[in-house]
Amino acid sequence: MKINVIGGGPAGLYFAILMKQASRAHQIRIYERNGPDDTFGWGVVFSGKTLANLRAADETSHAEITKQFEAWDNVDVVHRNTKVSIHGNSFSGIARLQLLKILQRRAEQLGIKIDFNTEIHDIESLRNDCNLLLAADGVNSTVRARYANRFQPELDMRANRYIWYGANQLFHGLTLTFRENAAGVFAAHSYKFNPTTSTFIVECDPQTWEKAGFERLSAEDTLGYLGEVFAPDLRGHELLSNNSKWINFLLVKNKNWFFDNVVLIGDALHTAHFSIGSGTKLAMEDAIALAESFQHTASVSESLAQFEKTRRPVIEDYQAAAFESMRWFENARDYMHLTPTELAFVLMTRSGRVSFDDLKRRDPAFIQQYELGTDLHGSKTDIR
Ligand SMILES: Cc1cc2nc3c(=O)[nH]c(=O)nc-3n(C[C@H](O)[C@H](O)[C@H](O)COP(=O)(O)OP(=O)(O)OC[C@H]3O[C@@H](n4cnc5c(N)ncnc54)[C@H](O)[C@@H]3O)c2cc1C
């Protein structure tokens, strides 16, 4: 089978690897507009369950990925300068660039051709020249826009703003930090992803953003402003920019997932708010599901139909949970009157996927603290 892939992100690379692994006879070519070392952002997170899926799909890349991991089991919530830790949540972080390098190496080992620095404009020619065109071209997918009448995308630009920084302060857990000033409420989502660096995403609502005057602030002044807001958490470290800019989260859904020989995958197909940290996981698990559907039949149309049938309910479930989580952060200011422990509890249960009983099983001490209505386990400014 001849397969053209637009986009060399996690979805495109991983699908190519899995298909080539299943049959060396496939001719697979990936077109990527960036160079091999260009990337946006800092680290990404995987849960223990996702790692098991990656292991079952391709042991070689799984072994490489886990060698580079930073792992933790706690979610830390910081509110009113007090940190509350909830244990029993298995997560790992890796630099996005590291992940891409591992997948690029594995793809090249298997004989997959990657054309870097090649932006595709003429999609129709590429589609006519293959049995399958995989649109793995990310959240602003050109393929989705080109065939919008076929895919019928639903795009919902949300009002909150966020900006993706790094920091050399290490956050030894998935840390959700809330800081208030005269402008409003700022939330930071942070976690370490290598021995020296953490991802540090700042999010705020549009009222806070306007009142803080970010529209008029330069990139440098924005960095300085947010560095001040989170000074107690950064402990003398500066925020690090990677050409970081404020963005609005774009919620992507598609009525149709494929037509003829073209299929959407990863962020091009769907997005889930970063507060449940699942974009890369979903992209790679899409690749697994799609490659599996080709194991059962050689027919492209049957495989694509099978992919949608098995994967759509999973994605809808995730998007529903991510939507609740996103709404929580959009309304974060309504929860600031809660004590740190109360806030930690509502945060942990915000998406409706983690219950009181789940938390009791994972971390009985936290639930005891919650039931007693105390903040005994919260540690004042103990943010190491
Ligand atoms: C603030 C923030 C935090 C996040 N945190 C996490 C996290 O903690 N964990 C997690 O799992 N995910 C996270 N994500 C999401 C994650 O980055 C994406 O969901 C994931 O990268 C999707 O993979 P993908 O392969 O579908 O798309 P992408 O990684 O976006 O890859 C698409 C590729 O296509 C290329 N491309 C696009 N158009 C063309 C074209 N016309 N021609 C050639 N190439 C093209 C692009 O250059 C890009 O390399 C986060 C995202 C954001 C914004």
In terms of topology, how is this protein built?
Blueprint: E1 2-6, H1 10-22, E2 27-31, E3 43-47, H2 48-57, H3 59-67, E4 70-72, E5 75-79, E6 82-86, E7 91-95, H4 96-109, E8 113-115, H5 123-128, E9 132-135, H6 142-146, H7 148-151, E10 153-167, E11 174-181, E12 184-192, E13 198-204, H8 206-212, H9 219-229, H10 231-234, E14 239-240, E15 247-254, E16 258-259, E17 262-264, H11 279-296, H12 300-330, H13 340-348, H14 356-362, H15 364-372, E18 379-380
Parallel strand pairs: 1-2, 1-9, 2-8, 5-11, 9-17
Antiparallel strand pairs: 3-7, 4-7, 5-6, 6-18, 10-13, 10-14, 10-15, 11-12, 12-13, 16-17
Helix pairs in contact: 1-4, 1-11, 2-3, 2-11, 3-4, 11-12, 14-15
This protein binds flavin-adenine dinucleotide (FAD).
Flavin-adenine dinucleotide (FAD) is lined by residues 6-12, 31-34, 44-45, 119-120, 136-138, 142, 162, 164, 201, 266-268, 274, 277-281, 283.
Descriptive notes:
Strands 5, 6, 10, 11, 12, 13, 14, 15 and 18 form a nine-stranded mixed beta sheet that branches. A six-stranded mixed beta sheet has the order 8-2-1-9-17-16. Strands 3-7-4 form a three-stranded antiparallel beta sheet. The relative contact order is 0.16. Helix 1 (10-22) runs parallel beside helix 11 (279-296), helix 2 (48-57) runs parallel beside helix 11 and helix 14 crosses helix 15 (364-372). The chain has helices at 10-22, 48-57, 59-67, 96-109, 123-128, 142-146, 148-151, 206-212, 219-229, 231-234, 279-296, 300-330, 340-348, 356-362, 364-372, and strands at residues 2-6, 27-31, 43-47, 70-72, 75-79, 82-86, 91-95, 113-115, 132-135, 153-167, 174-181, 184-192, 198-204, 239-240, 247-254, 258-259, 262-264, 379-380. It has 384 residues and is an alpha/beta fold. Mean pLDDT is 94; it is low at 379-384. It is built from 15 helices and 18 strands. The termini are far apart. Helix content is 41%, strand content 25%. Flavin-adenine dinucleotide binds next to helix 1, strand 3, strand 10 and helix 11. Residues 6-12, 31-34, 44-45, 119-120, 136-138, 142, 162, 164, 201, 266-268, 274, 277-281, 283 line the site of flavin-adenine dinucleotide.
